[in-house]
Amino acid sequence: MDVTRDDDEILVKGTRTAFQVLEALGELGEATLTEVADRASVSKPGAYKHLTTLDRLGYVVKSDDTYTLSPRFLRLGSWSRDQMRLFRAAKPKIDELSDTTPGLTSLLVEDHGQGVYVYRAGDDTYLYERPEGETVPLHASAAGKAVLAFLDESEFERTIERHGLASVTPNTVTDESALQTELQDIREGGVASARGECLEDWHGVAYPITRGTDGLVGAVSVAGPVDELTGWTLDEEISGHIVSTVESIEVELLMG
User: Among 74-78, 115-119, 175-179, whose mean pLDDT is lowest?
Assistant: First the structure.
């Protein structure tokens, strides 16, 4: 294979289309062929072929004229997460943190320039609205900014070039210079915060996880609706709990 070619030249179009169809179906929940094709921006014959193949493989369920994702995807997700030493070390600590703080407690890692919440604990309503596996622009969340602050310069630039600094809410920091200033403050103080930057009525605070000399591996955050966090001091009281949690996770990682 000629490794000097542009990355787009070696992409398998059929695989890319299949995942467009799967993601469209996941976003819709239950949908007809036409709805999936429209959401995925593919032709109806193309969507039909992919859905039929995925149905035969057991990853899509067809009932009358509608399609849904199969629970079989849970197996793939479990394989991915259970193989993460970070998840195994962090899960019990995240659960303990959730018992002592309000809102939604999360473990986030960077993947392909975006943040992915690999584990969450908290009120069932929050877990339904903000599920595990959710992706978020790194610059728009407290945990994402905690990760961004400790990426090396080349990784940071690749992330910004690939994903930009989109405005998720009117409060999102979209100016690179302003973001760099905030990230420097995070590097100096350790704690990252976001106030209505991913969801307008949600605030959050986070702290990065490092593993000895191996560098950054993720971040722990606590976030929730402003009303839910009333009476708590995000940048002091809650951040203290988060820092203690991260320290215990890092000990587990070093011992493992």
Answer: 74-78
Backbone φ/ψ region at 190: left (φ over 0), alpha (ψ -120 to 50), beta: left
- For residue range 31-69, list pLDDT tens digits in order: 999 999 999 999 999 999 999 999 999 999 999 999 999
Residue 90: closest CA among 193, 240, 210, 189: 210
User: What contacts 4, CB < 8 A, 6 or more positions away?
Assistant: none
CA distance 76 to 66: 23
The edge-to-edge listing of strands for the beta sheet with 60-63 is 31-32, 66-69, 60-63
CA distances from 72 to 22, 31, 96 (A): 13, 18, 30
> Is the whole model's pTM more than 0.70, yes or no?
yes
In this structure, how many other beta carbons lie within 10 angstroms of the beta carbon of residue 175?
A: 9
User: In this structure, what token pair is assigned to residue 80?
Assistant: 């991915």
Assigned token pair, 248: 């215990």
Query: Which residue type, as a one-letter code, is found at position 7?
Result: D
Tell me the per-residue pLDDT of 133-152, one tens digit each, with 9 for 90 and over. Answer: 889 999 999 999 999 999 98
State yes or no: pLDDT of 11 exceeds 80: no
The pLDDT score that the predictor gives to residue 4 is: 38
Distance CA 82, CA 110 (A): 17
